[in-house]
Amino acid sequence: TSIGVLVAFFGYIHHFFQPIRTLSELYNHMLNAMAAAERIFKLIDTPIFIKDKAGAKEIETIQERICFQDVWFSYDSKTPVLKGISFTVYPGQTVALVGPTGAGKSSIMNLIARFYDYQKGQITIDGIELKDIKIESLRKRMGIVLQDTFLFDGTIAENIRYGRLEATDEEIEKIAKIIGVDEFIQQLPEKYQTRVREQGSRLSGGQRQLISFSRALLRNPQILILDEATSSIDAYMEMKIQKALTELFKNRICFVAAHRLSTIRQANLILVIKDGKIVESGRHEELLLSLIHISEPTRPLYI
After folding, report:
1. What does pTM read for this prediction?
2. Bridge-partner residues for 73, per DSSP?
3. I need a surface site. Which of 12, 69, 101, 111 has the fewest CB within 10 A?
4. Using CA atoms, how far apart are residues 298 and 277, in angstroms rounded to an integer?
């Protein structure tokens, strides 16, 4: 047998098994697709518990206040997470929610966005109970930035535009400059047309959050919800957006869950949440003064 025949034989063997390998890979892809499809259909089939009531109203603007009145809430209808929460916030005011993990800060924000319904008490917007307002009408006037941001597999401009699909390129760049995200975008080869891949894998955590922040503010919301939104932003980037935040908070009702002192100090009202209750409230200076006059050495400090 010549060397040429031997080489040809091994070549034929390779070509013979290649379709088998391709079929095995295709089978693995099919299994992954079936598992993903099962999760998707399970999500689609999940019943909707939060629905509009018959005769629900639309709100055009928030002119007066948002009021919590003795609100009680539980995720399982057994163990209360919020216990008699009461406070009032007016347009142009920023409310900071502070406290240990699991105290109920995110639950308050979930109720404002009506991701859940409370069991007792009342939440009103300009005197209208939250459950009597159309959900779409409510959420159109909201901008939300969470701690865990999600970016789509697309360009930076497309991810920011997701906040308001009809926004122009000029509006996107204007918001990006106000937030301070334009600086690092201009350093990218394709600038606003740079693809970030799914979940923004090409960007740092702080950059992803700044893009998510721009996306929320592009909506020009009347209610702005920030849930640990600056947790992944370093001190330099946070310093850059503090002045912008001061301007952007004007004439909006803002709810901020944060532990950074720089974010909390500018709030009009700080609510200290512990075990589902408001244990203290006031401005930053007022709470500091109250701490000075307290003699308990074991008193927890969250601000």
Report:
1. 0.74
2. 82
3. 101
4. 19
